[in-house]
Write a structure and sequence with these properties.
Helix content is 38%, strand content 8%. It is α/β, with parallel strands linked by helices. Bound molecules: thiamine diphosphate and magnesium ion.
């Protein structure tokens, strides 16, 4: 670890890592008391990643956490009670008890976009936030996190490519904790460094030790500054380890003992404490003060959360569907008259149709629109619908059985290769063959 920060910065990083761990320890206790409503994920051993990266952001910047980034929320200013209440589905929680994990954000004050469970989807979303900030002249940076597993989704690549081509002020932290559920990295990506994925988009990247909070922070700060100065998106791969299973239900017995032992000996908080005492930034007394501060804070926050009521039953039906003005204040700004850009005026007549298609009867006597078999009978070769030439080209005659070299077979093949007309049942069958 290098010495390059102010004393306060060093101590802040320590405090938030300790707070991150203590908040999650408290939630494990709540989980065992059956007070946690949804799944409980852990970032044990990964605290330096969430804290070190989020600490590099300014107040005006935006972040969107994933399941193992509670530390980032705490750094951005979310009170621990919100995290507790959210997981306990309490009425005073940010989502008023509608979610049992960490799907909440704060667009107005803290600039936090709610997590999206579909891995990778936050990348284009946060790219959009970054571009919007630039459009509004705000000089903000947007940040999100993705796992080693999540970096193999299609939307990861689409999102990164989009961010790169737009030169979005966006920092992506690729949290390589060696596992995606029970799949080790080596079995899903043929790369030594996942940061190499950045080469495909022509953007810069870093590889850092995710258990060294100072290295994580200084790298993230450099990346955030570069993104803010117009250099475009940056990918940071942090190498770390998921110390517990995917969630509370997973004992992670598939993790080799040696691997676990290696990383447990590299606990990010223990490593940092060693550094801080060697640099005379933390002694037994100041450590005790921090212990007491966190204990006092979390005891009050937990009490508040436990005393918060569960939502009233009738609330279950509210706030589920968008109700327009009561739900949000975002309104479309129509540049053309609405009638001109919405149906029926905006509807285009079908290029070609199939007679009877859409008029079949369903068992409940309504119409069963997509069942060819239900369409009315009509004669073979009847002229139902003229097919435009371009369409006819695409409906070439279906492959014939093994050709028999006889005059009559050739003649038949030639005949069926001319589908100028698609006729109801028989044509549909032909086309599907
Ligand atoms: C697109 C998509 N596919 C699958 C899942 C199910 N899923 C949730 S977490 C997870 C593993 C993620 O592993 P990784 O990205 O390495 O993150 P980690 O859990 O290690 O933090 C999977 C497959 C999902 N949420 N979204
Ligand atoms: Mg992982």
């Amino acid at each position: 670890m290098k010495k390059a920060l102010t004393r306060q910065q060093y101590l802040d990083l320590y405090y938030f890592m300790r707070l991150n761990r203590a908040v999650e320890d408290t939630m494990v206790k709540l989980f065992r008391q059956n007070k946690i409503v949804g799944g409980l994920y852990s970032s044990l051993g990964q605290e330096a990643v969430s804290v070190g990266t989020a600490y590099a952001l300014e107040k005006k910047d935006w972040l969107a956490p994933m399941i193992r980034n509670i530390g980032a929320l705490l750094v951005k200013g979310v009170p621990p009670r919100d995290v507790f209440m959210q997981h306990m589905a309490k009425y005073d929680s940010p989502t008023k008890g509608k979610d049992g994990t960490s799907h909440f954000g704060d667009l107005e004050n803290l600039h936090i976009v709610s997590p999206i469970s579909m891995l990778g989807d936050l990348i284009p979303v946060m790219t959009g936030v970054a571009i919007a900030g630039r459009y509004l002249g705000q000089k903000i940076v947007a940040m999100t996190w993705i796992g080693d597993g999540g970096s193999s989704t299609g939307v990861f690549h689409e999102g990164m490519n989009f961010a790169a081509v737009q030169k979005a002020p966006f920092v992506l932290v690729l949290e390589n904790n060696q596992w995606a559920y029970s799949t080790p990295v080596k079995r899903q990506v043929p790369l030594e460094n996942l940061a190499d994925r950045a080469k495909a988009y022509g953007i810069p990247s870093y590889v850092v030790d995710g258990n060294d909070v100072v290295e994580v922070y200084t790298t993230a700060k450099e990346a955030v500054d570069r993104a803010r100065n117009g250099e475009g998106p940056i990918l940071i791969e942090v190498k770390t380890f998921r110390r517990l299973g995917h969630a509370q239900h997973d004992p992670a017995e598939y993790v080799p003992k040696e691997m676990r032992a290696y990383w447990e000996a590299r606990d990010p908080i223990a490593l940092y404490e060693k550094f801080l005492s060697a640099e005379k930034l933390l002694d037994a007394n100041s450590k005790k003060q921090i212990d007491e501060k966190i204990e006092k804070l979390l005891s009050a926050e937990r009490d508040f959360a436990e005393n918060s009521p569960l939502p009233p039953a009738e609330f279950a039906a509210q706030g589920v569907y968008c109700t327009g003005d009561d739900c949000h204040k975002v309104a479309p700004k129509w540049e053309r008259p609405i009638a001109e850009v919405t149906p029926p005026k905006s509807s285009v007549p079908a290029v070609w149709t199939v007679k009877g298609f859409g008029s079949g009867k369903a068992s409940g006597s309504g119409s069963a629109p997509i069942h060819f078999g239900d369409t009315e009978k009509h004669e073979e070769n009847s002229k139902d619908t003229e097919v435009p030439e371009a369409v006819a080209e695409t409906i070439k005659a279906p492959a014939q059985p093994r050709p028999v070299k006889s005059k009559s077979a050739k003649a038949t093949a030639k005949k069926s290769a001319k589908p100028a007309v698609v006729s109801g049942k028989s044509a549909a069958r032909k086309a599907r063959r």
